[in-house]
Amino acid sequence: MQAENILQEHGVKPTALRARIVEILKTSQTPLSYDEILQNLDANKTTFYRSMQLFEEHGLIIRTENNHKSYYELADGAKAYFICDICHKVTNIEVPMPKEARVVKSAVIKGICGECEA
């Protein structure tokens, strides 16, 4: 689905910047920080955060926090991640969602990955 269509489906007026943010998030397998998104984007901090706040209000993205840093991903289903406390690598976890958990957006499990433990 095109970024403009995703924005319109969520009641967000499409702009070039907003469409580009959606495209960046669509191609990522893990949540991205401001710095990671900014690598592929030419925008000032205020405009970026206003867009992300608007996206969150309209249910377009999920914002999670790790070590006082926000991470963003498209809200296209419940997701779970393992984050290593040492190297901070983020890994997707396949978790079957119980029927009762209809409003879960994301879950973060922290620990030490096998590479860092060795």
Describe the model:
Its cofactor is Zn(2+). This is Transcriptional repressor. The protein is of the alpha+beta class and 118 residues long. It has two domains: 3-74, Arc Repressor Mutant, subunit A; 79-117, no CATH class. The protein has five helices and six strands; from the N terminus they run ααβααβββββα. The strands form two sheets. A three-stranded antiparallel beta sheet has the order 1-3-2. A three-stranded mixed beta sheet has the order 5-4-6, with no helix packed on it. The longest helix has 13 residues, at 45-57. The mean pLDDT is 85.
Question: How many discrete structural domains?
Answer: 2
Biggest sheet strand order reads 1-3-2
What fraction strand? Answer: 15-25%
**Distance between termini?**
42 Å
Alpha-beta content class:
alpha+beta
> What's the total number of strands?
6
CATH architecture annotation name of the largest domain: Orthogonal Bundle
Oligomeric organization of the protein chains? single chain
**Main sheet, how many strands, which sense, barrel?**
3 strands, antiparallel
- CATH class group of the largest domain: Mainly Alpha
> Could you say which overall geometry the principal axes of the C-alpha atoms support?
globular
Mean pLDDT: 85
Radius of gyration: 15 Å
The CATH homology group name of the largest domain: Winged helix-like DNA-binding domain superfamily/Winged helix DNA-binding domain
Query: pLDDT below 50 for ≥5 consecutive residues: which ranges?
Result: none
**Series of secondary-structure elements, N-terminal to C-terminal:** HHEHHEEEEEH
Helix content bin:
25-40%
Number of helix segments?
A: 5
CATH topology of the largest domain: Arc Repressor Mutant, subunit A
Protein name: Transcriptional repressor
Cofactor: Zn(2+)
Keywords: Metal-binding, Zinc
Binding site for Zn(2+): 84, 87
